[in-house]
Amino acid sequence: MVSLSPATSFRLAAGSELAMWLFVLVLGFAPFPLGLAVSWGAGLSAILIAACCLIWVLANIADVQVLLFRPAILWIPSALFGVALLWAFLQAFPLFPAWNHPAWEMSSQVLGRSLVGTVSIDPWRTLTEATKLATYAGACWLAFSISRERERAQRLFDAVIVIGALYVIYAFGLAVADVAQARLIYHQSLPNPFLSGPFMLHNTFATYCGLAALAAVSRFFALSSSSLIENKGPRRFFLSLIQFTFDRRAPHLIAALLLFSAVAASASRGGFAAMTAGLIAMAVISIGLARRRERRSWSTIAMGITLVPFLAFIITNSEKLAQRFAAVLDAGTVDDIRLALWAAAVRMIESAPLRGLGLGTFQDAYPLYAQKVFPFLMDKAHCDYLELAAGIGLPAAICCWLAIGCFALYCLRGVFVRHRDRFFAMTGFCAVTLVAVHSAVDFSVQIPAVGLSFATLLGIGLAQSRSSASR
What we know:
Layout: H1 6-29, H2 41-59, H3 64-67, H4 75-90, H5 102-111, H6 123-146, H7 150-177, H8 181-186, H9 202-225, H10 233-245, H11 250-265, H12 269-293, H13 298-317, H14 319-331, H15 336-351, H16 362-369, H17 384-392, H18 394-417, H19 422-438, H20 448-463
């Protein structure tokens, strides 16, 4: 073990703190410009995250162990994700002439001149989306590296909650003022009758708030487990519950209430269902932990009692959500547009199941594979699974899905391995659950602000899925 001088140790600590707080600033800024879902958003987020990673590397270059993605078992899913990411970049370069899409030859015949073809229909879009995926990977690695120390993990985790709660307050302020964020960015008012906050779409806002809500709920109940008196009867338990709810830990409860209310007020069916799935996963894990301890746990009762205000907020803010669910039930089907998009995506996969059409090229490919025409810009498939498989092909897409699934299982294992601070790993697993459910019907994780928040919670969960001794 290398011994460092006090001055060197101070510089390392200062550099690490600088990298962490710059990362927090990036997470705080990302939602404001429409979630960075603007033409320059992917490039700016890549530059900012790369700068944070570079500062962290320079600050810790004297300790190689800090820079490694350990334990070694995490290298397998990391390699799978790296393979998918590498193929996404290779699609944008003229390296495989035999795999070029036929659209390039057709264009050459129309223009009367030879064109250099690629696997991707639109190399620029593919490079943009591949850069976005690389940015998510960098954010996850940075959050993982920062969160190896419990104190830093706790600060970064709380920062995600605080940022989410502040944007909820901002969203309600915009709603009261009847001003859309698009008007502030593009100086034009776009119709959006639902609560969307700083984002363009209410579905994206629901996913963003849902991730922060899961973090707030797990943090709140982690604090309650160390403060509630469970072994002196129900009277002392309920008194400690009331005292806990209204003491200095109340901000976590308030943040959770705000975030839950925002998801309900957004009237996003997919966002609400995804958040519910995340909460169910959290409840099932909590019950499993209580049974594993083989003793009566009042914390389970506390969870049920404390969730009453959450449900009250959802009920009082979910009139539009109920109307949207009722409309779906009355129609007896899902949106016709989504069905048409999914059918087109399936045909894209069938046309190039191995090589794909290029990551992020759904907008360019849709006119070639569509059977229905709508008066809208079809730039997303509204199903990340189908869009990813159509973009990079089934083998690379499966690698990506397996990688995220392995990360989720590692977090789930960490919940049962850790003796304290289980909420970090639990939130990582529940965040994957939320994103996995919502990705089946939407594309929120493609928005940089949402993807960065998800990558951050996953990185924290992975870092805190091992015992302190093993770290």
